[in-house]
TrEMBL record:
Pfam families: Methyltransf_11 (PF08241). This is Methyltransferase family protein. SUPFAM superfamilies: S-adenosyl-L-methionine-dependent methyltransferases. The keyword Oxidoreductase does not apply. GO terms for molecular function: S-adenosylmethionine-dependent methyltransferase activity. GO terms for biological process: methylation. Residues 43-137 form the Methyltransferase type domain. Coiled coil: none annotated. It comes from Lacibacter cauensis. Keywords: Methyltransferase, Transferase.
Length: 209
């Protein structure tokens, strides 16, 4: 078991109840970005405890929700029993056996900071998309990361910081372009919508050509 999996297995017990501005702002980002779009088959990568699965399942005819952590998935499974939602435990740095058919939407919410090599994962996402399908990415803004912010939570023995990697905006753009993905929108989300502060989230929406 790798350290990210271990960390989320431990964080799962408190993930939904901790104060977490990034988690909550991303829920808003996803809903605002995807509300105008139509999609039937959705692949949600890093679904965690199902914060976004509950919304995606109302829009889509089917949702495949994937996560590395059994404990995070356990929380999601306890909330969602709908037959059109399939949960899969998998490491997305390995082959995507869960993506045998193609999707209209692939979404990453707060996952890619835990992935060292962006390009191979975005290639798999592009391969999993139908032509015209959408790729949604929302991550802790790189500017926040430059200032030292990382996914972290409190334990009885102190603060646990989850292994994170810095991806620059150009890294996302280059990896997407190399895989035939065209940028539709780039949005920055700020705490309390205060645009004089460092943005908390970077949200990117791409479309497969
Ligand atoms: C910060 S949580 C985000 C959960 C959810 N998307 C949300 O926005 O609340 C990151 C999630 O990514 C998952 N994750 C991290 N690395 C992964 C990998 N290599 N494969 C699959 N899931 C991974 C973790 O287990 C965790 O549930």
């Amino acid at each position: 078991m790798n350290s990210v999996q271990q960390a989320y297995n431990s964080w799962a017990q408190q993930y939904d109840s901790n104060e977490n501005k990034t988690r909550d702002l991303e829920a808003r980002s996803l809903r605002e970005t995807l509300a105008p779009l139509s999609f039937e088959r959705c692949l949600e990568i890093g679904c965690g405890t199902g914060k976004n699965t509950v919304w995606l399942m109302e829009k889509a005819a089917s949702v495949t929700a994937v996560d590395l952590s059994e404990e995070m998935l356990g929380k999601a499974r306890a909330k969602i029993t709908a037959a059109h939602v399939q949960f899969v435990q998998a490491d997305i740095t390995q082959p995507w056996s869960f993506a045998a058919t193609q999707f209209d939407l692939v979404g990453f919410s707060l996952v890619l900071e835990h992935i060292e090599q962006l390009s191979p994962v975005l290639k798999k996402a592009a391969d999993a998309l139908k032509p015209g399908g959408y790729l949604y990415i929302s991550e802790l803004h790189p500017f926040k990361q430059y200032n030292g912010s990382k996914a972290r939570f409190e334990t009885e023995t102190g603060t646990q910081v989850v292994t994170c990697f810095n991806h620059h905006i150009s890294d996302f753009m280059d990896a997407a372009k190399a895989n035939g993905l065209q940028l539709l929108s780039l949005t920055e989300y700020f705490d309390e919508d205060d645009r004089t502060t460092i943005p908390r989230l970077l949200t990117l929406l791409f479309q497969k050509k």
